[in-house]
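Lab notebook, design round three. We kept the backbone fixed and only want residue identities now. Task for the bench partner: fill in a sequence for the structure below.
Input structure tokens:
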């Protein structure tokens, strides 16, 4: 399902602002891809991003979407979310620490900010230098539970 772009956008997305500060080259296709990713609980697949981008700029190709996403992921600006089943999703909130909450029935995926960050005690690190911890909370959303 293609969802049209949000009407009446007046603010520049946080992701777009961060990319401009980095001096990242913004072609029309890249800009549209970044605009599609705008939002708090945006976790789209590459194919969904492509469909939404084409609704705005028809000449946006799927290869451009994948190349742009790969670059944004490697820069740490976008997170690649792999839930173990189904296609990867892309989260534009790479610059903010957060975890994910997913409904195991419908697949809804939300950003959450628990008050306590996951920690691994030194005795359990086996000599590793810990770079990050990702936690995914799984459950049933109110619609699926109801």
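Proposed sequence:
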């Amino acid at each position: 399902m293609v969802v049209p772009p949000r009407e009446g956008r007046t603010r520049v997305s946080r992701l777009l602002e961060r990319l401009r500060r980095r001096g990242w080259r913004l072609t029309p296709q890249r800009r549209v891809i970044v605009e599609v990713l705008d939002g708090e609980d945006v976790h789209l697949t590459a194919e969904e991003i492509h469909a939404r981008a084409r609704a705005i700029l028809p000449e946006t190709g799927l290869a451009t979407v994948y190349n742009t996403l790969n670059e944004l992921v490697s820069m740490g600006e976008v997170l690649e979310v792999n839930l173990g089943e189904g296609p990867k999703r892309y989260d534009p909130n790479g610059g903010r620490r957060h975890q994910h909450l997913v409904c195991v029935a419908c697949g809804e995926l939300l950003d959450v900010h628990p008050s306590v960050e996951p920690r691994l005690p030194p005795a359990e690190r086996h000599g590793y230098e810990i770079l990050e911890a990702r936690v995914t909370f799984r459950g049933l959303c109110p619609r699926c539970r109801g």
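Keep this in mind before ordering anything: The helical segments are 14-22, 28-36, 46-56, 62-75, 142-145.
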